[in-house]
Amino acid sequence: MLRIFSYGDEQSALKQHLHRSVTFDAGVQKVVQDILADVAARGDRAMREYTLKFQGVSPDSFTVSAEEIDAAWQNADPEFIAVLEEAYRNIEAFHRHELDKSFFYEQENRVILGQRVTPLDSVMLYVPGGKAAYPSSLLMNVAPAQVAGVKEIHLTSPCDADGRVSDHVLVAAKVAGVSTVYKFGGAQAVAAFAFGTESVPKVDKITGPGNKYVALAKKEVFGHVSIDSIAGPSEVVVIADSQANPEFVALDLFAQSEHDPDAASICITDSPEMAEAVKAKAEEMIGSMARADVIREAFSSNGAIIVTRDMAEACEVSNMIAPEHLELHVRNSWEMLPDLRHAGAIFMGDYSCETVGDYFAGPNHTLPTNGTARFFSPLSVRDFVKYTSIISYSPEELRRTGERIARFADHEGLQAHAEAVRARLRTL
Fold first, then answer.
1. Are 269 and 240 in contact (CB under 8 A)?
2. Where is the secretion signal located (predicted)?
3. Does residue 35 share a domain with residue 137?
4. Among residues 68, 220, 258, 324, which one is catalytic?
């Protein structure tokens, strides 16, 4: 189960235990590269073969029909639809605050400079399927794309052996107002939208989580299209002081570890008594968890309780980990916030558990993993727009500055650059 480390005495052992990286073995790389090349070369024919091979069916159409979406809606629990609708309103409202505006400003001599913000034309949003379906991921990917103004939003999610995409995913798509849903997954789905086929459009960007084959395929096609990130296993850090509720802490660690045996769940506390209480509570409650075996494996491989000398050191350890999710079960969470520099999302106080953010609050749950919160950000509207610089120089300003610009080019040995300016100066 959870091992307790003393940060002051066991730093090297702790860092070795917590070491994480995104790596792909040679076998996975070969499979993915072969699939990408095959789909690029043979298009729809390759897609049908891979859908049959990996999903057990070769559907008549790659897209979900309007009738299938309507049937899923009619069969859905009205309460579930209401929750999806409210969650989507929250997510969309949050992302509206992220919108950047184009700007222009004028300098002397009629020089106008600026930046224009425009949405991408088309995106593909990947929604995992198979053993589990994630309508929450669909909402989190669609909302910022819609707020950004993307015109073409394509969804894809693996179908089952009967050729059906999860009803929950289809209902979420209808809530989000997306009608184009494809029914395939895996590396072949990434390939289809990165290169285009007879039936599948090439897009500008691919976002959304997936298994290691999807993650590696996204990495391989980067440059042909843009991508959001290479997602690794999920992770949470809970900082708890002596007043924290051990049951809350243990359950939040469970919630992360039930995702995947590779998920990381870490508690940091300055109280040895709290460390023991959390460990005891976790051992007491784990038998009641439906995914107890997964949680135990994750705890054994990637779980830890870390005892620090004080809360300043707790912040230091958290910044070193740079977690995807960071929960603050402390008395003065807002006072601690300035010391926490690296995290995908920070959950403030006992009643702001990660589950609230995963499904409902509004901020995006697509977050940087594996310590990449040091330099990456959550999925946002900014992922679905691009920025274009605008430069309007006047003859007066070029006359005033042109020779200095040309000399700058001379120093770089770029004659044509310099002459392009001097030719204009001669006309002035």
1. yes
2. none
3. yes
4. 324
Residue 155: both structure tokens together: 């969804």
Q: Which two tokens stand for residue 105?
A: 């400003």
95 belongs to the catalytic site: no
Q: Which domain holds residue 171?
A: 26-227
User: Are 168 and 102 members of one domain?
Assistant: yes
Is 298 found in the same domain as 173?
Answer: no
Q: Is 325 annotated as a binding residue?
A: yes
Q: Give the model confidence (pLDDT) of 190-214 as tens digits.
A: 999 999 999 999 999 999 988 889 9
CB atoms within 10 A of CB 255: 20
Q: What's phi and psi for 365, nearest 5 deg? A: -95, 0
**In the annotation, is 325 catalytic?**
yes
- Strand (E) or helix (H) holding 135: helix 135-148
Number of domains in the chain: 3
Residues 214 and 248 in one domain: no
Active-site choice (95, 168, 325, 365): 325
Asked if residue 79 belongs to a known ligand binding site, the reply is no
Is 412 part of any known ligand binding site? yes
Q: Are residues 189 and 60 in the same domain?
A: yes
pTM for the whole structure? 0.91
Residue 259 annotated as lining a ligand binding site: yes
